[in-house]
Design a protein that fits this description.
Strand order of the largest sheet: 4-5-6-7-3-2-1-8-9-10-12-11
Radius of gyration: 27 Å
Strand content: 15-25%
Structural class: alpha+beta
Helix content: 25-40%
Order of helices and strands: HEHHEEHEEEEHEEEHHEEHH
Number of domains: 2
Length: 356
């Protein structure tokens, strides 16, 4: 199961959307999907920690790239206007392709602008790296033989490296395929998601041959999911794993509890590990039938304090790097050019002074 893919596309497609929340829409995902990731960016920006990260990190460091991209495309882009990002994938049918589809929720006017830009490039340059094709009555755009992109009603943009999987995604949105709302193959993993900022879920974990040795515990699981949310005064992270059987669930609980205990002991003598020790105290590991739950909470107030310190250090490092580069540039500009053609006078003088 491969989930690595051009996530930078998410920023490049920053677009005009609504201000309402954008929770996971199960109707957009086929029932046979093996993994999914959903980020509700509106909910993220509305949260206290998300608001701080947006203002002090994302806005600041994406301002220039967004401006450059807007100038190139001819219309304004802003990452804040993305409603949500959803990615899902199935079995890896083609080892040369990463089997995943990205769904960007956006506004129709932005889709029209992007389509207009692609059509203009194709019209002006027959050798353009953007190609338009029709497959099963579906219109697709291919970018440099690497990425397929297509608009989808009513306000979505789809992207993926696999043409067949992208067509499957379109058919799912059009109601031509069975979706998770009709047949929820993820069972308990997609319940209780109100207020969720991020969810990542996968099934068939024990069937994966490439599970790293450090994560062998996952070989006892049929599936799992991670939820991230900000509830009341806490940032909450919840890991839920479905074990193969009851005995495997108990064993997994003991493994997680042991890992947490050992890690806590390793931090006891570290003077700067107080926040981490406090976080570890909040971790709760429990079992309900075959479901192993690992939950932790961290006060929003403390999270904001940690973020402020991290941002301050980041700004200092960036300023120091900028000053260093500027000083280096000024030094190089003030140095005289080497005279490669100048004769070696000292050697010449020594030769002329030799007695005949």
């Amino acid at each position: 199961m491969k989930t690595k893919w051009p996530i930078l596309l998410l920023l490049n497609l920053a677009i005009a959307g609504s201000i309402s929340a954008a929770p996971l829409n199960k109707k957009q995902i086929p029932s046979d999907a093996q993994w999914l990731i959903h980020i509700d960016l509106n909910k993220f920006v509305e949260s206290q920690t998300g608001r701080f990260i947006s203002t002090n990190i994302l806005d600041k460091h994406l301002k220039k790239p967004q401006k450059n991209l807007s100038n190139m495309l001819g219309f304004d882009l802003n990452w804040r206007d993305i409603d949500s990002l959803t990615a899902w994938g199935g079995e890896n049918e083609d080892p040369e392709k990463e089997q995943g589809v990205l769904i960007v929720k956006t506004a129709p006017n932005l889709i029209n602008s992007l389509v207009g830009f692609a059509e203009k490039q194709i019209e002006q340059d027959p050798d353009s790296k953007i190609k338009k094709l029709t497959e099963n009555s579906k219109t697709l755009y291919n970018l440099d033989n690497e990425l397929y992109v297509t608009p989808a009603k009513p306000n979505h943009l789809l992207a993926g490296k696999s043409k067949s999987l992208l067509i499957k995604a379109i058919e799912t949105l059009d109601g031509e395929r069975t979706n998770l709302a009709e047949q929820n193959s993820f069972d308990e993993f997609l319940t209780g998601m109100d207020g969720i900022i991020l969810i990542a879920a996968a099934q068939g974990l024990s069937n994966q041959a490439d599970v790293p040795e450090q994560a062998n515990v996952l070989k006892m699981a049929n599936g799992g999911r991670i939820l991230l949310a900000e509830k009341d005064a806490d940032v909450c992270l919840d890991l839920l794993i479905k074990a193969k059987n009851d005995s495997a669930a108990i064993e997994m609980q003991q493994v997680f509890q042991g890992m947490i205990a050992l890690f806590s002991l390793s931090q006891m003598q570290k003077t700067n590990a107080a926040p981490l020790r406090e976080l570890l105290k909040s971790v709760n590991v429990s079992v309900n039938n075959k479901l192993v739950s690992v939950g932790l909470k961290y006060p929003v107030k403390k999270a904001l304090e940690d973020l402020k310190q991290a941002v301050s250090k980041l700004d200092v490092n960036l300023n120091n790097k900028s000053d260093k580069n500027k000083t280096s540039a000024d030094t190089n500009a003030g140095e005289p050019e080497d005279s490669v053609d100048s004769p070696d006078v000292s050697n010449k003088d020594k030769t002329e002074d030799k007695p005949q």
